[in-house]
């Protein structure tokens, strides 16, 4: 189900830059499992969604300057500490909290991700362009066998997506034009910001990103260069 | 020929951080070949050694503040432009100069490097900690099939080795103690600076780093945690 493919644009692509949370890895299932393994007496679905939802306001505090530069690890921890109070989980040791917070270093890949990335890597440079900190992305990529050519992170540019410095930073790192970079994400807003910087864009459907109880609209947007159900389909569309 | 191994120290190692030029890739042979392919009427041995030798004074200009932050690509180009004048090579087009400067993106790995790194990766996180810019390291690693878990560069920390921010930065990125990082390099001065920051160190002999006409002292220094002839020998010493 390839739609909106523009072979001429895609032909100029040199680097594929991937959003990671939700696009390449299944944070919902992974965090749910970690909470389950700890036997916490909470509504795991609500806890997981709230932890993820707390991430954007936390990022915005950094983007607005209210907070100085703070890594996603530290932002995840701030949100976690609030949630543990809200959900009245008061018995965890510091070591347990630290370990739970590192659940985000252990997210599992979507079933198509390793095959899709491996195929794409044969023809393109593939890198992350995630708000996750470098260590988080490296640990996750190692445990999930994600074969990146390079891990790029907001941490490299000291700006969080959707700051243009992140999208344009990918092009600058590789000394290529913004139009030679294709941003790949399961989120239309991420892609819209990338497009505004002159990048090509590929949308990946991840209808279960927020779990089985929350609907996600995965309908195509004609402004994207490509629309694919998963990363293997993207690889096929890009001739890999 | 393993010397000075300290198994207790090595047991605490989580991340191996590699110097790249000379340690993992053979810049001398690669640059010599690129000059040869261009049929330049110069003493290739002298030109190659002078290009590499020009790198340190250029870095020092950045470290002293005389130059603002400048990538290795741009420093290589500054040195190249001077050398082309010194060697009276005046006929190259801008495109040819740009391409020649990117010779550093195409350096070949030492024959043991891919096997050694692949084995080390099975047990440790392996990353670069090079003064090379991220794009240079990523392009080189892709063309030479170097299987890094993560590419770290002076560019991430906006400080060049031997600034402590680079060595300590590796530990900070991975949220581990400096003593859990082992710096791997073919240069004793690089290792001495890493050691001063609390890192473990492994010296790799590369007697031909400067080509067949220039002697390189590769004798052991007892202050290093490990001393190995090449990266396969390092892998064996580290139980991989």
Automatic annotation (TrEMBL), chains A, B:
Name the Pfam families for this protein. Answer: Hydrolase
GO MF terms held by the record: (S)-2-haloacid dehalogenase activity
Q: Does the keyword Nucleotide-binding apply?
A: no
Coiled-coil positions are none
Which reaction is recorded as catalysed by this protein?
A: an (S)-2-haloacid + H2O = a (2R)-2-hydroxycarboxylate + a halide anion + H(+)
Assigned keywords, A-Z: Hydrolase
The EC number of this protein is 3.8.1.2
Q: Does the keyword Signal apply?
A: no
Q: Which domain of life is it from?
A: Bacteria
- Annotated function: Catalyzes the hydrolytic dehalogenation of small (S)-2-haloalkanoic acids to yield the corresponding (R)-2-hydroxyalkanoic acids.
Similarity-based family: Belongs to the HAD-like hydrolase superfamily. S-2-haloalkanoic acid dehalogenase family.
Question: What PANTHER family does this protein map onto?
Answer: HALOACID DEHALOGENASE, TYPE II (AFU_ORTHOLOGUE AFUA_2G07750)-RELATED, HYDROLASE, HALOACID DELAHOGENASE-RELATED
Protein name per its UniProtKB record: (S)-2-haloacid dehalogenase
* Species in which this protein is naturally found: Cupriavidus basilensis
Lineage, highest ranks first: Bacteria, Pseudomonadati, Pseudomonadota, Betaproteobacteria, Burkholderiales
């Amino acid at each position: 189900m390839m739609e909106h493919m523009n072979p001429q644009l895609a032909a100029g692509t040199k680097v594929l830059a991937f959003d990671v949370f939700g696009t390449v890895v299944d944070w919902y299932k992974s965090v749910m499992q970690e909470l389950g393994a700890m036997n916490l007496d909470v509504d795991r679905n609500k806890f997981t969604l709230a932890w993820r939802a707390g991430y954007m306001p936390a990022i915005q505090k950094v983007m607005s300057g209210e907070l100085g530069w703070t890594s996603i690890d530290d932002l995840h921890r701030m949100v976690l500490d609030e949630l543990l109070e809200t959900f009245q989980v008061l018995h965890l040791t510091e070591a347990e909290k630290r370990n739970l917070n590192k659940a985000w270093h252990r997210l599992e890949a979507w079933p198509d991700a390793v095959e899709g990335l491996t195929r794409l890597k044969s023809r393109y440079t593939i890198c992350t362009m995630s708000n996750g900190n470098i260590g988080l992305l490296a640990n996750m990529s190692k445990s999930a066998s994600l074969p990146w050519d390079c891990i790029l992170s907001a941490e490299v540019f000291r700006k969080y997506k959707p700051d243009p410095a992140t999208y344009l930073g990918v092009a600058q790192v590789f000394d290529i034009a913004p139009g030679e970079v294709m941003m790949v994400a399961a989120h239309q807003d991420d892609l819209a910001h990338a497009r505004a910087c002159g990048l090509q864009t590929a949308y990946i459907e991840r209808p279960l990103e927020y779990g089985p109880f929350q609907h996600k609209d995965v309908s195509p947007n004609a402004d994207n260069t490509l629309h694919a159900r998963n990363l293997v389909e993207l690889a096929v569309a890009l001739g890999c």
